[in-house]
Please model this.
Amino acid sequence: MNAYMASVVEQVKKRNAGEPEFIQTVEEVFHSIEKVVEAHPEYEKAGLLERMVEPERAISFRVTWVDDAGKVNVNRGFRVQFNSAIGPYKGGLRLHPSVNLGIIKFLGFEQIFKNSLTGLPIGGGKGGSDFDPKGKSDREVMAFCQSFMTELHKYIGADTDVPAGDIGTGAREIGYMYGQYKRLTGLYEGVLTGKGLTYGGSLARTEATGYGLLYLTAEMLKCNGKDIAGKTIAVSGAGNVAIYAIQKAQQLGGKPVTCSDSTGWIYDPEGIDVALLKEVKEVRRARLTEYAAARPGAQYHQCAAGSNVWTVKCDIALPCATQNELNLEDAKALVANGCFAVAEGANMPTTMEATEYFQANGVLFCPGKASNAGGVATSALEMSQNSERLSWTFEEVDSKLQGIMVNIFHSLDDAAKKYGMEGNYVAGANIAGFLKVAEAMTAQGIV
Ligand code: NDP
Model:
């Protein structure tokens, strides 16, 4: 890394000690854009990288709510408004016990480049809380969401910052938050995306991240003389992204044989039964043991070191659960088993060492900021529909999504070729995403 970039990384490490995921993502992005930064010496004088790694605003707040036993609970809420150079801040809200400021900053930083790649006018932001919706009653979840929004509403708006769902934040949580926003502000505006269809949501938003992942994967394979049809696919996760990735993979003729949650994983050699998976996860909100109990041919395994979905023989791997869930050992197992393509549904699920191993072994590898951008892209389409006060059909949204994902693949493929790194889609995604933001920041002066 050149001296300017190395000094910025040093500063990031010093200023953000204790935030390993954030440091990891900054290093990963910088690793890819070195040639671009060298071609633009004016960036250094303008302090462009120093500005880019510092959020425009990071808000941390107390969220107080009362549980069903009458006990007062205190959680910590966050919203990081990272970069608004190309549009209003946009990015999801994660509700998970592991959430802290560093996690939200890592996700917010990734979001800047992802949103840029969509070609739509959306800046980067992210938020959430260390609240765990798992095991809570609907009333407890509502109490939390209302309290969370009571503080958050001061900082968001349809033209300033538009949050969406993420881990732990699905249709139910978005509904409670939207209701509270409306009650507090009196505004019926598109301040959140992922809304229900009866109050401003977009058709195909629920499916968008998983479907988009498969549209991009299909294009990546096509451009490399391959096809999804007939391929065995390992998927991790059993949430929004994983479920609709599995569904679209089946529609394209592939055979997903695995899924997982935070306690265990399923190997179903006949192919995952999506209707059953939806029933267990979306309706019953239950564990995957219930999937195995209802499906005699499926095997259930507990998650443990060396026991995960990546040990299953497959052609394509789609990590769709969470960050750093696919490490070097997993990558070695996948390559040894003949896996030839990996596309990330989750954000940063593959460690840097595993990514490098895939690339060194000729595996087609697409990073999440490109391959899972279908969710935020469709969120931006939801914003457009809200502004127009119109609703588009499923087919209209789905075909726009497909076009966006194909374009994303070509923009990163072209960027990689232009900078002499053909086939390196990680570099291509970072370069293409970065250039647009850098240009907009430069045009807008030192702010
Ligand atoms: P969900 O909450 O719907 O599902 C997450 C799934 O991953 C669950 O099955 C969950 O299991 C599992 N999981 C979560 N944490 C862990 C962990 N530490 N170890 C193992 N499994 C875990 O989230 P989404 O599907 O929405 O999000 C999945 C990923 O995709 C995240 O990285 C998210 O940031 C990313 N993403 C999501 C988008 C969206 O539109 N939803 C858009 C772009 C990216 P369990 O049920 O046990 O918690």
Remarks:
- The chain has a mean pLDDT of 97.
- The pocket of NDP is lined by residues 165-168, 209, 237-242, 261-263, 320-322, 325, 345-347, 372, 375 (CB under 6 Å).
- Residues 142 and 172 are 9 Å apart (CA to CA).
